[in-house]
Amino acid sequence: MALPYVDKEYESEAAKAYVSSLIASELQAMGPNRRALPGTDISLFSNAPNSRRFSKQQHRGGSIGGIDTTRFRLEPPSHAQTASEDQWAAAVANAHAQLEVQLARIATLELVSAFGANQWKIANFQLESMVARVRAEADAVKAELLALNKDRKTDQLRAGAELARLDEKWNDLVDRVLRAGG
């Protein structure tokens, strides 16, 4: 077990190169980590063929075009004078559907204008409180980590002093044995 605040022999360039080579060989043995590889191909739209097509078109630099508005037009049946009653009924049904869509849009806009600002403020307040809570948790974890690292450093420096004292004592004992036996 290494004591980074005590064992200074690990700070040499040779030791750092050796450790780096060990880490590199271990990483190769582990295989690739998909989360660590930038640019991996992740299929976001596997169940949405239109979205996938638009995404591919966007990546190629092409235009995805606009919204197809042909279904929103109120056109009379082709050849209005000779159109059958069924064609006119379909045109009237289309007009009713368009009217209902517009009424729903108006109702939505009225609701947004009446309540949207308050809902936006409430949502922003909730987001701000979540951000504050997460920041407080992060600060608490940072403080714990700092305290832990300070404790480790103190323990290692204390152990280093003890190791130095024991090493000196061992050297003295070996020196005495060599003098007595020699």
UniProtKB/TrEMBL annotation:
Q: Name one Pfam family in it.
A: BCAS2
Q: Which GO terms describe its biological process?
A: mRNA processing; RNA splicing
What's the domain of life for this entry?
Answer: Eukaryota
GO CC annotation, single: catalytic step 2 spliceosome
Does the record carry Nucleus as a key word?
A: yes
Q: Which UniProt keywords apply?
A: mRNA processing, mRNA splicing, Nucleus, Spliceosome
Q: Where in the cell is it found?
A: Nucleus
- Record-linked InterPro entries: SPF27
Q: Which family does it belong to?
A: Belongs to the SPF27 family.
Identify this protein by name: BCAS2-domain-containing protein
* Lineage, highest ranks first: Eukaryota, Fungi, Fungi incertae sedis, Chytridiomycota, Chytridiomycota incertae sedis
